[in-house]
Amino acid sequence: MPDGSKVWLNAASTLRYPTTFNGTRSVELSGEAYFEIAPNAGQPFEVRNGNNTIEVLGTAFNIMAYEDEATTSTTLLSGAVKVNGQKILPGQCASISRQNGQLAILDHVNTEAAVAWKNGYIQFEGQDIRAAMRLISRWYDVAVEYRGDVPSHFRGTIPSNVPVTEVLKMMQMTEEVTFDISGRTIIVSPGK
User: Fold this and answer.
1) Which of 1, 121, 150, 166 is the most exposed place for a label (fewest CB within 10 A)?
2) Are residues 141 and 69 in the same domain?
3) CA distance 51 to 160
4) For residues 188 and 130, what is the distance between their CA atoms, to the nearest angstrom?
């Protein structure tokens, strides 16, 4: 970025910022990004997402703010940030409900899982199948359809350079779900 800060964008994400910062260094995020912010006490840094504002106090953090997720999550790796005025510390996650705007601070979160995408991995942390498939849909740019009740949860880490067919094969090994592919659509059904 113009100030020397570094940003990594995940799939289906956009970041808007000016070519030069005047006053507050303000950017607008849609999707997910990992930030390493260059310290500059004279120019505060903030990330906006809809009605939410993350004030950065010199730090490394991840923001997951996809429109199709129930919450917007800010996970702090180092330093400090304020999310809608509430300060969080390293190892914490500020989660904001899209439904009612309520802010919850979660302690002792798995920061490695929050930035797995940045490090070239797809990581499932006990996610239900719908959350896992939203991640796969974004990563591989595919559509997903559901047939029947598929309440499975998944754990595991998969390199992101693995073809989607291999990811689905690994998930199907649980025998809790099956997958069929039709063009660019993955059809998810209950296991056998």
Assistant:
1) 166
2) no
3) 31
4) 9
Q: What value does the mean pLDDT take over residues 125-133?
A: 85
- The Cα–Cα gap between 171 and 189 comes to 12
- DSSP symbol at 172: H
CATH number, domain with residue 139:
3.55.50.30
173 pLDDT more than 80? yes
User: Residue 25 — pLDDT band, cuts 50, 70, 90?
Assistant: very high
Query: Does the pLDDT at position 152 exceed 80?
Result: no
- For 60, 75, 112, 144, 148, the CA distances from 178, given in Å and listed in that order, are 38, 32, 28, 13, 11
Query: pLDDT averaged over the chain?
Result: 92
Same domain, 25 and 71: yes
Which sign, positive or negative, has the C-alpha torsion 128, 100, 63, 141?
positive
Position 127, amino acid: Q
Q: Which residues pair with 93 in a beta bridge?
A: 75, 106
Write out the H or E segment, with its range, that includes residue 168: helix 164-172
Residues 12 and 104 in one domain: yes
The SS3 assignment for 22 reads: coil
Q: What percent of the chain has pLDDT over 90?
A: 68
Amino acid at 34: Y
What pLDDT is attached to residue 153?
Answer: 81
Query: In this structure, are 68 and 98 located in the same domain?
Result: yes
Structure tokens at 168: 């689905």
Residues 11 and 106 in one domain: yes
